[in-house]
Amino acid sequence: MDLKKIMEAGLQAIESADVLETLNDVRIEFLSKKGALTKAMGQMKDLSNEEKPLFGKRVNEVKEALETALKAKVATLEALKLKEDMQRDAIDVTLPGTKFVMGAQNPLVLIQREIETFFQEMGYKVVEGDEVELDLYNFERANIPHDHPAREMQDTFYIDEHTLLRTHTTAIQTRALEAYAPSVPVKVICPGKVYRRDDDDATHSHQFVQVEGLVVGHGITLADLKGTLSLFAKRMFGETRVIRFRPSYFQFTEPSVEVDVSCHICDGKGCNVCKHTGWIEILGAGMVHPQVLRDAGYEDPKLTGFAFGAGAERIAMLKYGIEDIRSFYINDKRFIEQFKRYE
Ligand code: PHE
Q1: Which of 52, 195, 244, 311 has a 20 to 30 A CA-CA distance from 9?
Q2: How far apart are the CA of 151 and the centre of ligand 1, in A?
Q3: Any idea where the domains of the chain sit in the sequence?
């Protein structure tokens, strides 16, 4: 093939190629070591010495022309491919995004956090413990000795003779006291799950959440307890709430009180929620029994303290008007989602 024909055929092939792969074939056919141009060079040996440089020059011109055309066409096809790719993969930024369903906090968790936050603001430290507890910390150190009838107040799941599922978060407090002794002040808030043998119904559960508080120091009195719980009641149920103490009995406090808050539904006038008394019982409390302090390692008889314990479910039920305690545990989305606004 003479050079002119090679050039024409090459340019024609480049021109008509419409995909990059074809262009590569063209390059191999015309410009590679075994391509048409290299073959044409074979004619060189038959030429005279005068013709040789001219022919060489001509070969180079053809080579350059083909390379230039090839390069230009590669660029064109690449640009075209990019454009096509971009069109194919284009994202319509105006389309609506994927909707993620937001979860909501269980109201029980919300109440627990709210209580913790209130006491943390007053300088309390949040302390947690294990749900599997020793009899020693759950009962003995709470001044509830073996075979004492007070144990019947808290029907217990025993794991073995000395180990049980804690029946109250007082177990966290007796441990905290031991860890702090003999230093004061102690100001702890102890939230956690507790367990009692109980038949589950709308108001009873074999497992529930308690939040207990404990303060030990010099000159702590029942008045401090009342002031603290009064603020607590206002924070949970509204600024106009007041509380009252009624005498009660717990082994680990002396004196012991039951704490009522004026009804937040009827403002104390009497309604179904407060059973027409104007008052709702919200927690148990009292001054820490001296024996509890001694057992924990506090020898100074002048030290005093107060403790209180509330059920998180009960407070949540009262606050949000929930009627069945089991609603907290069955994880019904329709129930839980109602509390989104309280986050
Ligand atoms: N531990 C008691 C209960 O489970 C509550 C309580 C705590 C009472 C602290 C007084 C003081 O019922």
Answers
A1: 52
A2: 13
A3: 3-88, 107-342
Q: For residue 169, give the H/E element and its range.
A: none
For residue 214 the two structure tokens come to 């404990």
Taking each helix axis from N to C end, the angle separating 51-88 and 3-16, rounded to the nearest 10 degrees, works out to: 0
**Ligand 1 pocket by Cβ (under 6 Å):** 168, 170, 212, 250, 253, 284-286, 307-309
**Which tokens is 249 given?**
């009995």
Ligand 1, pocket-test mutation among 225, 252, 304, most atoms within 8 A of CB:
252
Tokens, residue 72: 């230009």
**Atom 2 (ligand 1) nearest CA:** 309
CA distance 25 to 58: 23
| Residue 84 structure tokens | 């096509």
The residue with greater pLDDT, 77 or 152, is 77
The tens digit of pLDDT for each residue in 119-131 reads 999 999 999 999 9
CA–chain centroid gap for 11, Å, is 67
> Where do the DSSP E strands lie in the chain?
125-126, 132-134, 163-165, 186-195, 207-218, 243-250, 253-262, 279-288, 303-311
Look up the pTM and report it: 0.71
How far, in Å, CA of 44 to CA of 56, rounded? Answer: 8
Which ligand 1 atom sits closest to the C-alpha of 154?
4
Q: Kindly report, residue by residue over 68-116, the tens digit of the pLDDT.
A: 999 999 999 999 999 999 999 998 889 998 888 778 889 999 999 999 9
CATH of domain 107-342: 3.30.930.10
Using 50, 70 and 90 to split pLDDT, how confident is the model at 153?
low
